[in-house]
Amino acid sequence: MSRNKKILYTIAIVIVMIWTCFPIGWMVLTSLKSPPDVYAYPPKIIFKPILDNWLNVLLGQEWTGTAYITVHTDIPRYFMNSFLIACGATLIAFLLGLPAAYSLARYKFFGKENFAFTLLSFRFAPGLIVIFGIYQLYQRTGLFDTHFGVMAVHQLLLLPFVVWMMRSYIAAIPIDIERAARVDGYSWLGVFTKVTLPLLKPALAASAVIAFIYSWNEFLLGYVVTGPNARPMTPALLGFISYERVLWGQMAAAAVLGMLPSIVLSLFVQRYVVAGLSFGAVKG
Amino acid sequence: MAYLEIRNLTKEYGKVKALDGFTLEVEHNELVVILGQPGAGKTTLLMTLAGLEPFTQGEIILDDEDIVDKPTELRDIAMVFETYALYPHLTVGENITFSFYSYRAKRAGLSKEKITERVKRITEMLEISDLLKRYPRELSGGQMQRVSLARALVRSPKLLLLDEPIAHLDAKLRHRLRPELRRLQKQTGVATLYTTTDYMEAFGIADKILVLHEGVSLQIGTKEDIWNKPAHRIIGNLLGVPSMNIIPGGRPKIMNGKMNIFTEDGLQIPVDKEQQTRIQEKSIEKIDIGIHPSDIRPVGGGEYKPVLRGEIYVYEPLGIKGALSVKVNKRIIRVQTPARYEQRKVGEKIDLYFKETDTHLFDSKSGLNILFMR
Amino acid sequence: MHKNKNNGHTEVSIFFPEAVAKIGSCLVRAKRRIVTRKTIPYLLYFPAFIATVGILYPFFRSVVLSFYEYNPTYGPAYFIGVQNYIDLFQGVTSPSFWLSLRVTLIYAFANISIQLILGLGIALLLVRTFAGYRIVRAVVLFPFMIPPIIEAMMWKLMYEPVTGIINYIGSFLGMPRIGWLGDAAWALPSVIVIDVHNFTPFVAIILLAGLQSLPKRPFEAAQVDGASSWFILKNLTFPLLKPVLYVVLLFRMIESLIMFDMIYAATHGGPANATMSIHVNAYYHGMRWTMFGTSFAFLVILWAMVFSGSFFIIRAWRKALEARMV
């Protein structure tokens, strides 16, 4: 590359990085601002950072100017809700999806591709078309506003993902290895736990992380089937911007909290993310 | 009753028959080679015996026990896969002892000392004692093959199935391992089925050879039987380098009381007495003639009579032997010669000599050797 | 083998009443009969199948109810044929279907085209290696990991009309103060910018993976022939990348047609219905005004749009895959 080209190239990369990071950075900065700094015009990039917003959101401590008083905060509870729901939904998705994925990867059976495609087609459906019926069902059965209820509706997203991902990973394990273990005296279940599962470990970890992120980031389904009790983080955050006067500093702190788990977890599975995001349609 | 009896084994995939009425007896300590082209059903046969694939009908009796309804893990059959199928997440040592930790083996209750002793014996026999701590990905092809063999033999199984175990190794290693495999089998005495596409491998190690084609067993016999009396035209293709010359579509005619076969290309090939009576008995109209390149000579003498005349097409020196291709009326006939034929020029006229009794006659319609026709 | 089993059972019957042993052996036999080579694939698939039914049932119920007048506030559902659809197409719903269709299509089209172009550009930038390229690749993916609703909050903060940073930067470029999300003329483009920020990383990273998996040979040959980089891009990269482009297109089309979170969080469909997409409109009709019949008619049409769009893209994708095989 010539010198000029190199400079252009570097500038392009810098622009991309600014475009990517600036909004995130700006929100992190806002979460550290005091109310006067938030509303200052022109907007301040250099200011005296304070942790008031974070204390308020996390611990319910508000600075009155002279002392901290205890106020109510639901954010930690919503965070825990989201955490429980994402863990539970991931677990359920694997309990249901792993056997199905194994079945699709290893056997020929009647209607196999139709089953697989039906699962995939859930991605085509607008969430509402399914969730209204479930909403009414939940109202009647008492599943409304329960953690399990949200975990169950998240399967609309997670199950197709887990089945398609794990199917391609299982298919990549040579079937002769499983046959060899059968010949070596292991029952079907023995082969699965002693050979197949250990070989799938990295793939399982990666898919679990991505499934967790899907569940964590989901909004609409969780919004419709929950009230104040089991509400996950994402719908709860909506509360901040529905107010007449938005508390930008606290909102920013809560929002940073809400996106942190996904970003941190995504760093661990970088290598698998591509295959995971595209249902394995592009080899990553 | 034989140690292993397979009777009338049939396996259908929809309308296609992967195995058709397969019958075989194997004795204790016997090594039977299943010889056949790729897709002949060799692997399917072994999978079926191991219980890894279902079949349509038939009986399998191993050591006086009907094993048809037994699941794979209870059959006590060991198998070495073409791909070796080592467990990638286990070390070589763990791979070899894996079978001792199955539920079934635990119940059999082999003591730790006994296991260690067996592993020691087998790994020393196969010269892999120093690899035990390594993982399969750190092994060469030959080492992987030995490990998978050790994994099978360490169990002293009732039956050993070897699915093209040395097919993917380089030629040198193949030649070295062939006699070793035979020695090992004789040492352990385990009844063994061994599949291959290579007739040399089969001839080298087999007690008995079975030729399989499209799920049908064409011939069972010793290597002499198969070489000297191939039961089917297809077997000719499997034998020899170069493989048997097949001259198709000849009609038998009697001239001066002696039968000759006149082929489409206008060749005339004499027939011996036994074959003549057979043709007349069965009133066969069309005959394919097969002859091994090694049964044809470029010089006469004794019973060898000049039969064909052609011109040299090409000569390939193959070390101590050579392969001469001769063009006879547009047809290429391959002849195995002693070496040093380089001096003969391409296009030079040459006579080919062979014994009447060395030709193999196949019925054009069924492909069967006329001596085997019922 | 069989003998051992029988022995086992007689032993058991010493401790338990015979009936228990009998039930036990029945269960073993039943298990043998149920778990066979032929049934195993179905048994394994069964749990996922139940979940599938659990999703399909409410889906089909919604489809059926789109042919009903169904407003639980006023009474039970009654069948009205295609009246809901006629209402939609006559534009008598409020906000009207045609307005929503327009918003949805503009939203989807703008998103797909901008994101594909930007994403391809970023992928082409990142396919080269340079100092710290791993970090850049990881960071570029960040926005995609952020929930759309938080993306919307992030941008709302910057779009703030009075003190927001965007208007501040705009003032240097001589732009007047704009209401952005609160301005009917600017709301839709503003939401599209948020979507672009959120999902371009997805496009870029997938295309990057696609670029890395391309065969090296043709490119080396083209370089030897002295082809220009534009020529290589147009005649080699692009055709070879086609299958991957279709995959990305498929995902982006589906997700932007059915996008709800971001629009709802950013504008609630306003101002003056400027961002009232079909999905958001259906939400208001159903969840707010309990006009479920109408709401389902909206959703069924949206679903049909997504499905038919996917059908054509998947067909083109298969064709492109086959073409690449040859």
Question: Summarize this, please?
Answer:
Chain A is mainly α. Chain A has helices at residues 3-31, 35-38, 52-59, 75-106, 112-121, 127-141, 147-171, 175-183, 188-217, 220-224, 233-242, 248-268, 270-277; strands at residues 61-63, 68-70. In chain B, the strands form 4 sheets. In chain B, strands 6-7-8-3-9-10 form a 6-stranded mixed β-sheet, sandwiched between helices. In chain B, strands 13-12-11-14-19 form a 5-stranded antiparallel β-sheet. In chain B, strands 2-1-4-5 form a 4-stranded antiparallel β-sheet, with helices on one face.
What does this molecule look like?
The complex is a heterotrimer of chains A (284), B (374) and C (326). In chain A, 73% of the residues lie in helices and 2% in strands. Chain A has 284 residues and is mainly alpha-helical. Chain A folds into 2 domains: 3-70, no CATH class; 75-277, Orthogonal Bundle (MetI-like fold). Chain A has a two-stranded antiparallel ribbon. In chain A, helix 8 packs antiparallel against helix 9 and helix 9 packs antiparallel against helix 12. The mean pLDDT of chain A is 88. Chain B is of the alpha+beta class. Chain B folds into 3 domains: 4-238, 3-Layer(aba) Sandwich (Rossmann fold), CATH 3.40.50; 243-290 and 355-373, RNA polymerase II/Efflux pump adaptor protein, barrel-sandwich hybrid domain (OB fold (Dihydrolipoamide Acetyltransferase, E2P), Beta Barrel); 296-353, OB fold (Dihydrolipoamide Acetyltransferase, E2P) (Beta Barrel). In chain C, helix 8 (148-159) packs parallel to helix 13. Chain C is globular. With 326 residues, chain C is mainly α. In chain C, 74% of the residues lie in helices and 1% in strands. The longest helix of chain C has 34 residues, at 292-325. Chain C starts with a helix and ends with a helix.
- In this structure, how is the largest beta sheet of chain A organized? 2 strands, antiparallel
Q: What is the total tally of β strands of chain C?
A: 2
> On the 0-100 scale, what is the average pLDDT of chain A?
88
CATH topology of the largest domain in chain C: MetI-like fold
Outline of chain C: globular
Report the uncertain regions of chain C: 1-14
CATH homologous superfamily name of the largest domain in chain C? MetI-like
Q: What structural class do the secondary elements of chain C suggest?
A: mainly alpha
Which segments of chain A are poorly predicted (pLDDT under 50) over 5 or more consecutive residues? none
Based on the coordinates given, report the CATH architecture of the largest domain in chain A.
Orthogonal Bundle
Taking the alpha carbons of the first and last residues of chain A, their distance comes to: 28 Å
Q: Could you say which structural class the secondary elements and strand pairing of chain A correspond to?
A: mainly alpha
Order of helix and strand elements from N to C terminus of chain A: HHHEEHHHHHHHHHH
The helix count of chain A comes to 13
CATH architecture of the largest domain in chain C: Orthogonal Bundle
